[in-house]
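Subject line: Sequence and fold of a protein, written as structure tokens
Body of memo: The sequence and its backbone structure tokens, given next.
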Amino acid sequence: MPARNKDQEEEVLTWIYNILGEARPKGEYEDILKDGVVLCKLINKLAPGSVKKIQERGTNFQLMENIQRFQAAIKKYGVPEEEIFQTADLFERRNIPQVTLCLYALGRITQKHPEFNGPHLGPKMAEKNERTFTEEQLRAHNAELNLQMGYNKGASQSGHGGFGNTRHM
């Protein structure tokens, strides 16, 4: 499991509460996010109506449902499934760095939504950079010999002895 980065966790919480427009409560990162209420409010700000029912309090099972609703909503929002944390990663504190990674992914995906004009989290996403080459430029490359064609400035495998053989000294 990767090490936790307190600076990133601080940046994530600051980003969340800037979007929510609320004062940030005191407490540890995982304690603030644990019940999923803040996460559900966040996705509802980014994509209104994403989470219909938010359990403010209740049993552990009911609070874990908040996290599951958040996960389903961010998947619809465009966060890749491999970047979404497991419910136990947050609720049972098994892998808090994965939670942070997921929230960074969510912050990155907001850049693909033109209706969102709030603060961004993490680096700017790359844009498409298509290149076009003329037929002459493409043909010029055909005259070159690349390393896969056997020419390697005189280097060869002679004397190698082949795989599996013992090396005689």
Notes: The chain has a mean pLDDT of 82.
